């Protein structure tokens, strides 16, 4: 079947979708709307060399230069709509002309996504399944929620990503690499995908063009290809960052792009491994008195305060950027090894998805909106066969449900809930009919997990969106967010494990599966070792540490004895008993039968 015989066509769907998006112009908008209005003002009012220094507003420019140039281009049209929106001093300015203009630019920018999906359908051997996937992406509730209500410009950038993937499928690897380089200069979050691009371009373009497994063929360097790719990437990055190198502003620009002072978790936990870790820590706080676990009382409220950069764990060991880096890179290595030795376009897309999974699940300070980095590329692959679809289902549910907290107003309830459920029912049902049978048997546990997980979604949505407010009014507002994040994280992790099994068991490649398992085990051991080392460092030389639990009602120790024990043990002068006794009794939890002795500030005591 040719592309023009498919109904509804992408263009027809785009027209209907645009009508819905126009109706949403007056809807809720997040602070990201003011962020982009301010960027319009910055790029229009100031010379380029001042863009990354301007800080009149707290919403400073923190995207790479190509996106800043894109904002400048839009500002040239904005001055004819409402010049006041381009005033840097117009903080919080949102006239109806400004709102309609910015909303409209999001819709127009999605033309790039529409074109990329059209190219994908034309390049695919199976037009029907490719067309279904293209419709699912263009009508994605994730893009509707994030771009057209919350407000961002993700659609156009995912268009560039999909176009790059299409170039790879067509064998045009130079264009694939260059388009991805341009994408990195638009939004640096796509660095999550860079390892897969690096390995694939290295193996399939810069080394042997045939995909033999013989070592003498693998390492045959294609010098002309290396030169073309190197010069092309250098030209793109030079166009983006060259002026800032000349002005010696790279440290300032990098400081804006990579603010490392932020904490492990975002204010709302992204549905990844650290959401599960944080949820487990919350549960252990209440179990600690019964399990005789030490509790860092200063950290009890930190994970629930919603402050960026303010994440601490009360019971579980603290997580450092080193831990997240080890886990992220370590879990990417198996997929990258398979891609290196079997560099097909199918394996490239699979490795791209798995590197995105690893980055989202284990990286430092991940935003919930980054889930689209997994969902949208996986949508292109999920109809390969029914085993791929089985791994995709829980991701589709978990990923979209995790975005619900972005829209917390009553008016947007139908948009996020009704539209998302409708999309899930329509497309997952259609995908179930279109996905061909897999050559290998399906996995019983994965199928059952997917079924049970999806069944739980409806009562969870009902509770978090409606019942919690009716029962508790405005109290315990973090509970539905915590449940949503933890539930969604389980779905994403389950989907990741399912797709790992599918990816490495393809063609009965048991050697790859074994190798990946060994690497995963070593990564786990490395993580546990570094976590243990960090825990011991905190105990011995960190800013604070806690000693053994001492029974509150011990007949052998008075309160004074409890106070003095840790200080005497370490040869430190005992402070005033009254102040320390007050600090201890204030921190005793209801029902607690033991108390952690006074935290000692080691640096202060010995400084």
From TrEMBL:
The lineage of its organism: Eukaryota, Fungi, Dikarya, Ascomycota, Pezizomycotina. Pathway: Protein modification; protein glycosylation. The keyword Ribosomal protein does not apply. Its EC number is 2.4.1.-. The chain crosses the membrane at residues 189-208, 229-247, 324-341, 413-431, 452-472, 478-504, 511-530. It catalyses: an alpha-D-Glc-(1->3)-alpha-D-Man-(1->2)-alpha-D-Man-(1->2)-alpha-D-Man-(1->3)-[alpha-D-Man-(1->2)-alpha-D-Man-(1->3)-[alpha-D-Man-(1->2)-alpha-D-Man-(1->6)]-alpha-D-Man-(1->6)]-beta-D-Man-(1->4)-beta-D-GlcNAc-(1->4)-alpha-D-GlcNAc-diphospho-di-trans,poly-cis-dolichol + a di-trans,poly-cis-dolichyl beta-D-glucosyl phosphate = an alpha-D-Glc-(1->3)-alpha-D-Glc-(1->3)-alpha-D-Man-(1->2)-alpha-D-Man-(1->2)-alpha-D-Man-(1->3)-[alpha-D-Man-(1->2)-alpha-D-Man-(1->3)-[alpha-D-Man-(1->2)-alpha-D-Man-(1->6)]-alpha-D-Man-(1->6)]-beta-D-Man-(1->4)-beta-D-GlcNAc-(1->4)-alpha-D-GlcNAc-diphospho-di-trans,poly-cis-dolichol + a di-trans,poly-cis-dolichyl phosphate + H(+). This is Alpha-1,3-glucosyltransferase. One of its GO terms (molecular function) is dolichyl pyrophosphate Glc1Man9GlcNAc2 alpha-1,3-glucosyltransferase activity. GO terms for cellular component: endoplasmic reticulum membrane. It comes from Venturia nashicola. GO terms for biological process: protein N-linked glycosylation.
């Amino acid at each position: 079947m040719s592309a023009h015989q498919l109904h509804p066509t992408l263009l027809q769907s785009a027209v209907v979708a645009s009508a819905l998006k126009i109706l949403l112009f007056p809807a809720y908008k997040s602070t990201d709307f003011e962020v982009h209005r301010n960027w319009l003002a910055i790029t229009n009012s100031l010379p380029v060399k001042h863009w990354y220094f301007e800080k009149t507003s707290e919403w400073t420019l923190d995207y790479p230069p190509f996106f800043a140039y894109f904002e400048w281009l839009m500002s040239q049209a904005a001055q004819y709509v409402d010049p006041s929106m381009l005033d840097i001093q117009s903080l919080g300015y949102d006239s109806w002309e400004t709102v309609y203009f910015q909303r409209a630019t999001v819709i127009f920018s999605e033309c790039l996504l529409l074109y990329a999906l059209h190219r994908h359908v034309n390049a695919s051997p199976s037009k029907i399944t490719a067309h279904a996937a293209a419709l699912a992406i263009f009508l994605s509730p994730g893009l509707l929620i994030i771009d057209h209500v919350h407000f961002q410009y993700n659609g156009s950038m995912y268009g560039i990503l999909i176009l790059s993937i299409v170039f790879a499928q067509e064998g045009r690897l130079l264009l694939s690499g260059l388009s991805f380089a341009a994408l990195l200069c638009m939004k640096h979050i796509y660095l999550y995908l860079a390892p897969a691009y690096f390995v694939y371009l290295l193996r399939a373009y810069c080394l042997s063009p045939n995909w033999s497994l013989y070592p003498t063929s693998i390492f045959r360097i294609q010098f002309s290809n290396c030169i073309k790719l190197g010069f092309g990437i250098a030209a793109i990055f030079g166009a983006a960052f060259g002026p800032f190198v000349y002005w010696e502003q790279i440290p300032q620009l990098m400081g804006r792009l990579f603010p490392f002072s932020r904490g492990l978790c975002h204010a709302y936990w992204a549905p990844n491994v650290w959401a599960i870790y944080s949820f487990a820590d919350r549960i252990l706080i209440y179990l600690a008195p019964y399990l005789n676990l030490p509790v860092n009382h200063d950290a009890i409220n930190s994970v629930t305060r919603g402050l960026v950069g303010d994440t601490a764990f009360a019971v579980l060991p603290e997580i450092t950027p080193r831990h997240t880096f080890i886990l992220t890179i370590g879990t990417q290595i198996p997929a990258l090894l398979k891609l290196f030795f079997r560099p097909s376009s199918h394996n490239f897309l699979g490795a791209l998805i798995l590197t995105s999974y690893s980055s989202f699940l284990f990286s430092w300070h991940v935003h919930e909106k980054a889930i689209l980095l997994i969902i949208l590329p996986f949508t292109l692959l999920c109809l390969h066969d029914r085993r791929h679809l089985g791994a995709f289902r829980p991701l589709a549910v978990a990923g979209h449900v995790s975005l619900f907290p972005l829209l917390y107003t009553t008016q947007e309830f139908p948009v996020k809930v009704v539209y998302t459920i409708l999309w899930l029912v329509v497309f997952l049902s259609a995908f179930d009919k279109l996905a061909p049978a897999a050559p290998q048997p399906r996995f019983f546990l994965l199928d059952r997990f997917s079924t049970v997980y999806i069944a739980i979604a409806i009562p969870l949505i009902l509770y978090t969106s409606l019942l919690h407010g009716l029962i508790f009014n405005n109290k315990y507002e973090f509970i539905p967010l915590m449940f949503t994040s933890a539930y969604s994280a389980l779905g994403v992790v389950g989907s990741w494990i399912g797709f790992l099994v599918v990816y490495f068991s393809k063609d009965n490649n048991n050697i790859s599966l074994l190798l990946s398992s060994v690497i995963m085990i070593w990564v786990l051991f490395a993580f546990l070792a570094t976590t243990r080392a960090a825990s011991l460092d905190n105990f011995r030389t960190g800013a604070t540490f806690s000693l053994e639990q001492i029974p509150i009602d011990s007949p052998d120790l008075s309160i004074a004895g409890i106070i003095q024990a840790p200080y005497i043990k370490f040869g430190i002068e005992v402070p005033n008993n009254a102040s320390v006794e007050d600090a201890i009794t204030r921190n005793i939890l209801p029902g607690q039968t033991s108390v952690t002795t006074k935290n000692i500030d080691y640096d202060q005591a010995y400084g």
